[in-house]
Amino acid sequence: MGSVRLKKANPLTLALGALLCIFIIVFLVAPSSPSATSRRLDAVTAEHHLSPPTSPYRKPSSRSGIQLKPPPVAHYNLNNVTITTSPIENRENVLILTPMARFYQGYWDNLLKLSYPHELVTLGFILPKTKEGNQATTELQERIHKTQKHGPEQERFKSIIILRQDFEPALQSQDESERHKMQNQKARREVMAKARNSLLFTTLGPDTSWVLWLDSDIIETPPDLIQDLAAFDKPLIVPNCFQRYYDEEHQQMSERPYDFNSWQDSPTAVELASKMGPDEILLEGYAEMATYRTLMAYLTSEDGDRQSAIPLDGVGGTALLVKADVHRDGAMFPPFPFYHLIETEGFAKMAKRLGWQPWGLPNYKVYHYNE
C-alpha cells in the first residue's frame, strides 16, 4: 500500500483560525457592556402617557457585577396643569372618552375633522365582550391603524387606549328601540355607568386638562367643538343633541331632539323622588313618569344664540366637556341610585354636591346617528 502524503498547512490559514478561536472565547466569557444592558432594559421598559416606565427594578447580575438602574421616578406638579378658555394656546391635553358597542364610520370621520390639535388629544374606548362588541373592536382597530400608521400627520392622535369591559352588558341587542324601553333603563344605565367609570379611572392622566365624553353614535359636531365649549369656562357643559331624519309629511330633511337627560329640575320631580324607595330612580322622557322638568332639548330656537348658556341639574353624556379637576375631585357616574338619579344625571348631581355647577347650550347642536 502506498504512503499518504500530507499537504503542508498555509501559515495564513493557521493565523486566521487562531484569531477566530480567540474571538469565540472572548465572546462567550466576557460580560455584557453597560450600553448593551441599557439597550436590553429599554426594550422591556414600558412607556405610557399616563405613567413613568413600568418595568420592575432588576438586581445586579452576580456574573457580570453590573449595577442596573431602576426605572426613573416621575414627578408631576398638578398646579402646572392649566385649564383655561384658550386651551390650544396653552397646549392643554384633552382626553376624549367613548363607550362603544357599535362602530359608526360617521363617528370616526367626525373625530378626524375636529380642529383641536390631535397631538394634544388622547382617545379612550371601552367595548363589551359580545359579538357586536368584538366586531366593533375589529372595525375600530382597523381605522386606528389606518390613521396612526398611514394617515396624514395632523390626523394622528397623541395616544389611543382600548379597554374591554369585564362585566356583562345589560342588553344583548343594541337596537335603538330596545335601548330606550323604560323597563330596560335602570339595568342598562347601571352598566353604562360602570363602563364610563372604568374608562375614566384607567385613562385620566396627571397632565389631562379636559375630558370630552363623546358617544360612539355622535356623527356630526362643529369642528371647533372642544375649543368652543372650553371658551365658556364652565366646570361641565353640554351641547344640545339632535337627530336628522327625513320628514315624510313635508317630504324634506328635518331634525328632532334626541337627548332628554339635560334638564332643570321641577317641584313635581322633587316630590316624586321624595316618595320613592331607596333603589328607585327618576327617568326622563317617558309619559309614564311625567316629571315636568324643563328640558333643554325643547329650549332651542332657529335664530337662537349659540353663546347662550343655562344652568342645569341633569346632563346627558352624548357630548359633554368636563374640566379634569371635576373628575379629580371625585365626581363619577353612579351605577346606583344617587338622590334617585343614575349615570350621567347622577354625575351632574354629584358634581353639584362637590360645588361644580353644570351648564347647557340650548342652541349649540351636535347630531346623533339615525337608525
Automatic annotation (TrEMBL):
It holds the Pfam family Anp1. One of its GO terms (molecular function) is alpha-1,6-mannosyltransferase activity. InterPro entries: Mannan_Polymerase_Subunit, Nucleotide-diphossugar_trans. GO terms for cellular component: mannan polymerase complex. It is found in: Golgi apparatus membrane. Its main location: Golgi. It is a single-pass type II membrane protein. Keywords: Golgi apparatus, Membrane, Signal-anchor, Transmembrane, Transmembrane helix. It comes from the Eukaryota. One of its GO terms (biological process) is protein N-linked glycosylation. Belongs to the ANP1/MMN9/VAN1 family. This is Mannan polymerase complexes MNN9 subunit.
